[in-house]
UniProtKB/TrEMBL annotation, chain A:
Residues 1-137 form the AP complex mu/sigma subunit domain. One of its GO terms (cellular component) is cytosol. Its main location: membrane. Belongs to the adaptor complexes small subunit family. Pfam families: Clat_adaptor_s. InterPro entries: AP1_sigma, AP_complex_ssu, AP_mu_sigma_su, Longin-like_dom_sf. It comes from the Eukaryota. This is AP complex subunit sigma.
Automatic annotation (TrEMBL), chain B:
This is AP-3 complex subunit delta. It is found in: Endomembrane system. One of its GO terms (cellular component) is AP-3 adaptor complex. The keyword Cell cycle does not apply. Gene3D superfamilies: Leucine-rich Repeat Variant. Residues 525-540 have a biased composition (Acidic residues). Residues 673-682, 826-840, 877-895 have a biased composition (Low complexity). Adaptor protein complex 3 (AP-3) is a heterotetramer. The lineage of its organism: Eukaryota, Amoebozoa, Evosea, Eumycetozoa, Dictyostelia. Transmembrane segments: none annotated.
Amino acid sequence: MIHFLLCFNRQSKVRLSKFYSTYSQTERNRATREVMNQVLSRSPKFCNFVQWKEYTIVYQRFASLFFVMVIDSTDNELVTLESIQRFVVVLDLVFGNICELDLIYEFQRAYQVLDEFLITGHLQESSSKEILRAINDSEGLEKSLLVAEVLDQHFL
Amino acid sequence: MFERTLVDLIRGIRNHKKNETRFINQCINEIKEELKGDMQKKTVAVQKLTYIQMLGFDISWASFKIVEVMSCNKFSSKRIGYLAASQSFNEGTDVIVLATHQIRKDFLSSNQNEAYLALNCLSNICTPDLARELANDILTLLSTQKTHILKRAITVLYKIFLRYPESLRPAFPKLREKLDDPEPSVVSCSVNVICELARRNPKNYLPLAPVLFRILTNTTNNYWMLIKIVKLFASLTPHEPRLGKKLIDPLTNIINSSPSVSLLYECIQTCITGMSDHIPLMKLCISKLRTLIEHNDQNLKYLGLLALNNIMKIHPKAVSEHRDLVLNCLEDDDTSIRLRALDLLPGMTSKKNIGDIVLKLLDHLDTAEGQYKDQIIEKIIELCSMGTYQFITDFEWYINILVKLSQIQESVHGKLIASQLLDVVIRVKIVRAYSTRQMIELLKNPKLMSNPTEGGMCEVLYAAAWIVGEFSGYINRPIDALEAFLQPRVSVLPSHIQSVYMLNSLKVFSHACAKANGDEIPSLQDDDEEEDDEEDDDENEITHEIVQECLEIIKSRLTIFTHSIYLNVQERACLINELLSFYSVTQEQGNNISKELISLFTEQLNPVGPKAQKKVPVPEGLDLDEWINDPKHQEPIEEDEEDDIFNTNTGSGHKKHQRGGYDDEDDEDETNSSHSGHSGNHFNRHPIDIKRQKEERLRRQANNPYMLGGKVSKKSNDSENIPVVQLTGDLGHLHVGATSSSNRPMPSKGGKKIKKHYTIDTTIEMPEGAKESDDEDERDSKYKNDALSNINLSEPLTASDVLHTSRHRTDIIREKEKEMAMLAKKNAKLSPKSPPSSANYSEVTSPEIAPTKKASKKAASTTGSVPPPTAKKPSKKPAAATSTAKPPAQAAPAPAVVAVVKKVTKTILDDDNFKITCELLKVSPNEVDNGQVKLTMKVQNKTDEDMSDVSIGLKSSPQQCVSIKSSGEIGVLEADASTTHTEVLNVLDVLNQELQFTLVATPSSSPSITNQLSIILPFSFFIVPTKLPKDKFAEILQKSGQVSAMDSTKINGQSLTMPLIIEKLSQQLSIEVVQAHPNGQTASFYAKTTQNHHIAMLVKEKDGNISFDIKSPQSLLNQILVKEIAQLTFLSKK
């Protein structure tokens, strides 16, 4: 299973983080720091897998951002790499040509996409179409609820 | 006031790049204020906190507010709350329990999105408590038709299993059903969960193999799921070999045809774990891996090597064919790929190519950095030392390699190289002369001494110095060696290296003397022939002049070491100094003691197996766990103990005590032995004297209980000319390799002992598989203590396999009442004659001295499994409260002793000044601490003035009860305040149930008051619930004296049935039934007091009248019991 997911830039600023195994805040910070150091020290020519403690780090760089998943060493590295790519593709579809700023300001939406994609460190839905539909559904619902609220407040 | 929005916060953080932390802390302070505001403000605050948390700040202090936002009715707020919770909560967040109900409500919300949120959040924050509470709800969700909820529910189930393993058995059938779901994504989620579960305990999931097999063969496009299935089979196949055979075809198919590399890779991994004995399949795997490794993609290359490494463990030969490929990977730019290739090297090496491979690695070493550098050094040594140097043909070459390795800066492998040098030189005789010369060069090399740190490369000098000294017979220019040993720079080295330098300079000198005098040097005898040619070439014959020069050098340079700050160095230096001045003195007198000097160092040293010490058998009749002497005599011996243990293998280590190992040598022993030689000469003692001394010491050691090898050394004592064992013959038994630092040569006296040692080494050496099994244990232990992996799914479900359901306590009470009513109805039908009596209706507990209104309201409860919260509060309906209590004997299954927690509350004092209520609790009524009672007194000051010096003291005699723990003096008790006083008592006398206390208090305006408190313990507190088999019961009755006194009592006019009596006796008095007559009229009972009094009772029922015959050792006991029975509450009607 995926123990945690991180997304950070070259300056070690975390943009997304999701822990599927339980860690305290200090453990989270330490793990984040160690993983970032491992990944950032690697040259772009190197392969995308690093061994770290008893885990394997799978990472992929997209523009300025690194997406990292930390998995059991018995897990399939390639399919994890593919799921990173899939996640980024879905993010791109949802945000429409995503950039780092989108992630910073709309991190909640990004988390929502992530929740549709992964749950308890496992793949929940592999089809990007399905994820997109679920996100649109919930956003549409939220909008309509918001409108209803505003109407409530002002007219009734 | 103006508040920052989320965007403001983010912008602010981005604008304060230099002092980000300060800015955030400022924001956190603002947020703390905002959290006090209305829901809208709170929501924004929580949103901001979520962002701050992502940057690594702790927001656990806001957990409660997050729960509040989670519970908001507005969907947008709820979502923010749930996100914050799932990001920041962890095992330690205690407010999670507050969210339980909210989460449950949201599962069933009409808005599907709310259910998604709740499920997603639960998957992140699940704690054991939440899992227990919500397991049932999740299981209900599994019946839903909504795919999106179903998928999430299935995955969350895994988290529930992890945190609440008991749920696995009852929930598994439902999960199993989902494998047949028509929706592929649902099947996929179930496979995910089962795959994770199967990694912990594969055997449980073998029955699923047919279903999984079907899914494997029928699915074509969803390779995400196929990967999981194939992985799942990897855990199953080792437990069911037939499965492997069945899988060969489909897996071959996938490997040959699948376009997905990740699936292909997974199949190969599964083949390696499950089907490794199928050669064609393995060949196919290897050829596929070859294409992966040859691929341009670094990732595939890396994984290919990783998988190849797995195959190598099983089929090393098949892999070694691809040597070229692996060697090419050593050239790769990526260190992680090179490291994987390094892992493969041991399988690729042979006599022919080891030279090339090592040279290549040395090339890499020039450019390598950090960890990779150390890995290469380690690998070179591993390759060369493999199979006790089986691939090495030219040892001079290997010594050169080691010397080269020692030139590498900043490596952590100094010790490894040093121990290799020692090992090679000791094992391979022909290389000694060569290596001695090399080592002198090494000693002279300033590079190694440039930056000496303990454990660094300078450790090599340790080995070098020892080799030069030990084999100084090969040295033709001792002055060179001595100059190297005694150069002033040496004093910067770590102390253990310096002391080796000292001792070995003495060895060099001794050898030089011996050579100059033409003495025979025993240690060189064996290989003199080979050395002869070289020595002939050398013109530098050692003369007395040279020896004299050596002496001068040593004497002049030794001063710096005799003043060393390290004690061990100083000691050695002084010793040598003394020895040499003695030498000079005797020299002047015309005596030459060079023979004696060299005799200190003539013994051969042999390598010792790394585990030899552990494998020394314990002599027969020696129990190491027993005290040999009384502990107090131990101290004086302790100091020697360590030395003796070190010497056990080799008998007494006398004469020759130099070590090549790393342990700080047993200096004491060493100096002792040197001294004995020294002083023997000094006082011109006869050799016989020395011998006698030696014998004496051996005898002492033999008698020393800590000296294991006493007998051995005795035997070998008189053997002088025992042939020295040939090293080469024994090489096979010995361990070499990375652990060779423990391979240090140990001193040994004679051949017999060496032989003895080797037999120890081989006979006790563990079989080949032994080490592997160790590793296996370790691997298993990861999940060993894990409750989830210990669950067996193959057993059928039993009544105990139910999920926890939480209900409101009033529901439980109502249900119980109903049950009781039913029971009473039944009873009334059975015995219609006897009119229901309400005489003993409300009394539950034992006698009371101050029956007040409050006291009659107390609830006594005996609970076998779940102590219901109702028992704590005095219930308004005593009948209902008692009815919640289950008979413990029925609730608990078979064990003879049933643990019952008894609790009684009563008011013991209620006057103008004080009101004291007291709660009695029987603490762990088992056989270990019999009769412990926990007493919690709640003292309330009813007056309107403060009381000082309030204290409660135990008045009862120590024969009756002893206070184990007391909360001590209460001190000041303010007006109208109350406090609690607790005591844990050990009640020793069963026959006296009354506990007496004295309460002393001084009111501020009047003299002190003293109150006597008396608490009567219920009899049941003294009874250890015991289920006794019939035969034991008969035995007790037959034994005279066991139950000599007999008393009888009767209860009349109640419509009681035997089952009810049994229940009540067990429930209220903890007296258990032994045998009930089938006609329902007679039953025998048994009880045991905390003081092991046996109580036997026979109960007869006739026309509603009950007679009790009680037998026990003392009549007093019977009387108490009679009283208790009279007060029993028999509930015949609601």
